[in-house]
Write a structure and sequence with these properties.
single chain; mainly beta; nine-stranded mixed β-sheet; 36 strands
Amino acid sequence: MILQAGLMLILAYLAHAQGDISDLVIVVGTTAITADAHTNDCVNKGVITVDDTSIFGGWLKNCSKDSSDPTQAPGALPSTSGGKTVTSNEGESVEFVCTVTGMKINDTFAWTFTPKVGVARGLPLFQKQGENAQQTSPWYTFVDNNRTVWRMTINKVQRRDTGVYSCVVLSSRSQEIQSENFTLVVRYPVQINGVSPRDPPYVRPEEPNVIYFNETENATLLCLSVGNPIPDTFWRRAEGSRRRLQSGEIFSMSKTLNIYNISVDDEGIYTCEARQGEGISRDVYNVTVRVQHAPIVDEKQDLVRKRKGSSVELVCIIDSDPLPATALWYKGDNLLTVGTSTQHRSRLVITKLSHKDYHNYTCVVTNILGTSSCQFVITGRPVKPTIISSHLSPKMHVNTLEWTYEDYDTETEKTFRIYYQQKNHKKGGLKGMPFYEVGLKFNPQKPMHYNTTIHDLRANSTYSVVLFAVNAYGQGDEEEFEFRTAAVERKKGRDQKNQPTAAPQVGGNGHMTSSTMAAILMSICSALLLL
């Protein structure tokens, strides 16, 4: 009982002296008395004693003392020495030595530990009075030399051992306490214990190194780096990535990385790196940032040209996070009950195309964060022709247009229409000018080649041309072209002198033009005058 009471007084004294608690509680046995002004004064004077330790719990005497008590004679109290700050690397052994003078056999000696964080008062590790000794932890070794040199050894110190260790002596004669403090600083290499946030909904159990954020929210990544000395910590994009941080910088010199109004563009691997100075220790941790968003859709082919009787497949490619995403198909404004979907695509198949299937189609994809859609058009209209003529005409008043045309539909009848006019002409647009119509004969074995000659052109002038095909389903895509007529007629080369004269040209409608007829009549008149 005396040993326990002595230790409780020691701990109460240490807590009070260090100012770690606001109300001092003095414990004797199992009886606790909250300190007031009187008992505080008694503790400071060191004269509180146990009245009768044979009674369970005991009582406290008042502060009066008999000056004739021989135990209070000057020079009869123990004293301690040896306190200091000790720095050690994690895994090494540390020894504290406390020297005590004047200690009697009934005095109490104790070692206590106050951690750096988490505990306000000293934790008892070891206590001894007379030959009675108690040890509360197997991690420490305690040795004394005839009550004068007390040694405490910590084998293989850990970072949790950082704190203040105290050797304390309680006089059995006056209840006065003497103590010395040893501050232990444990150095350990830098270590990154992950990145916060680490809990749902941001992290999924099957992907511990992937953090999810919702699009447009402000995201914060905290690098959980530790070490002593405290490491310098910074963020960057992963090695090999040419992308910078959202701020435009390569590095963010902080444990915390903020990504404001996060978007899909911010997805990727981010690296947290912590260093304890050059050449000491370093650790790196990678985390993948994923941004959950409304579906992103893309059509495999938005314009589909097919002839009647063909099979058509419309494919909508889906990027959705989170899953699932629901896909619905519409024909115009009417919801269709057909269509099949997987996680990443939805398909609409028409096995045999009919005239009523030529229409606009929409695939609407929805997840918990929003909706997106993609549009398709199924048409039987012709494709666009390709003009292969030269942009410079060798003639002053005529030009021959040539083009190729390869169609998906070699069965439907169609014609070509050509609109042309002098460039920068002030009267109306091209559609206000007369046009040629040319009937086609299909050759399904090879691309088709066509030409027609335009007459009555101005010399040294630029003309704009629009060419397109027309069938029963409407007008096809337009091909635009420009050409320029010659300023003077090109003379025949040597290889043309003995060549036969070209036959008169005809227009796209198959009839001889007025200029050609005039040239023939002039030739006849000249011949008659020579007779």
